[in-house]
Amino acid sequence: MFGRKKKLGLALGGGAAKGLAHIGVLKVLDEYGIKPDFISGTSIGALIGSLYASGKSGLEFVDIEIKLNRNDIKKLFQVTLSGAGFISGEKISELFYPIIEVKNIDELEIPFACTACNIINGEEFIFTEGYISEAVGASISIPGIFSPVKHNKAALVDGGLVNPVPVDLVREMGANYVIAVNVLTLPKIKHKKISFPEHRNEKKIVETNVSINKRIKRFVENELNEIETVARKLTTILDIKNEINIFDVIYQSINLTERNIAEYKLKSDKPEILIEPDLKDIGHFEFNKTAQAAVLGENEMRKYIHKLKRFWK
User: Fold this and answer.
1) Can you tell me the distance from the alpha carbon of 294 to that of 44, in angstroms, rounded to the nearest whole number?
2) How far apart are alpha carbons 274 and 271 in whole angstroms?
3) Which residue out of 37, 50, 147, 158 is catalytically annotated?
4) What's the CA gap between 306 and 212, in Å, rounded?
5) How far apart are CA 299 and CA 273, in angstroms?
6) Catalytic: which of 43, 54, 88, 147?
């Protein structure tokens, strides 16, 4: 492009709904006519990166979000309760990929790659070819929430477990000037006040085997009822209340791990520009906050635009 010797790479990291900040970053790049030569992505970064690589602009993403209401999203999530994950991600492509004209990675306008984790052996699995829906579906499969994507002999889950912000991947593709977008900040989670029972006199809790068995039975029944309640709520995942719930616990745990991995990898392979918006007020599954997240990403990208323009000359 324009006779430049350097090749620009864009590495979009994972982070569930916080990854909607990528939209703001892309909007700024579009505004200045800056197109990356290569794009890599993990999880939500893989999803947005693949759509951008297909020719979608940053502004088009906002239009896409407006067209997708919660009912459109909820009806495509299938409860599986298979033991490998609560939700089957097989139909996720039906939501996003009617708006993408191409189906294969090698047909994208911008060279693209994304990463997933083979949960069987813990190794990174990189997609540089094949169906976009399969590659992105694997990269966004949050362990414990989405069922792993089967690919040959691999069982693939969220790429953030091995490469949360794939700078090295986009360098391997040929980039020697990299913009990395890290959105792994912990959200503020509201929670119910939990009160624990006071210690009781042990003499007062001596029970017969029969009464203990009854208590165990009631406990198991209550737990099963709780699981059933969770299952019923799965198809309304985007309506999660502002309190600690099973999805917060799972993803917050994963997010802590991914954030530490990202911090280590970004120190060992520093990008030329690192974008890290403050997304603490965006919850893991608050996909209804596209506009807010996009503005935060846009504002952070603008801080570095002059540095990027010097490279672009």
Assistant:
1) 13
2) 6
3) 158
4) 70
5) 14
6) 43
On the question of pLDDT at 119 being above 80, the answer is yes
Going by their DSSP bridges, the two strands 273-275 and 38-42 should be labelled as unpaired
Q: Supply 80's token pair.
A: 């599986």
Q: Distance between CA atoms of 256 and 135, rounded to whole angstroms?
A: 24
Spell 185-207 as b/e; 16+ CB within 10 A means b: bebeeeeeeeeeeeeeeeeeeee
Q: What are the beta bridge partners of residue 180? A: 11, 274
Bridge-based pairing state of the strands 123-127 and 112-118: antiparallel
Whose CA is closest to 48, among 68, 19, 74, 69?
Answer: 19
Q: Is 43 a catalytic residue?
A: yes
Rg over CA atoms, the chain: 22
Residues 28/305, Cβ–Cβ less than 8 Å: yes
Q: Helices (DSSP H) in 179-289: which residue ranges?
A: 209-233, 246-268
Token digits of residue 106? 């090698």
Q: Please write the tens of the pLDDT for every residue from 3-32.
A: 457 899 999 999 888 999 999 999 999 999
Q: How confident is the model at residue 17, as a pLDDT?
A: 85
Which amino acid type is present at position 205?
I
Cβ contact 133:127 at 8 Å: no
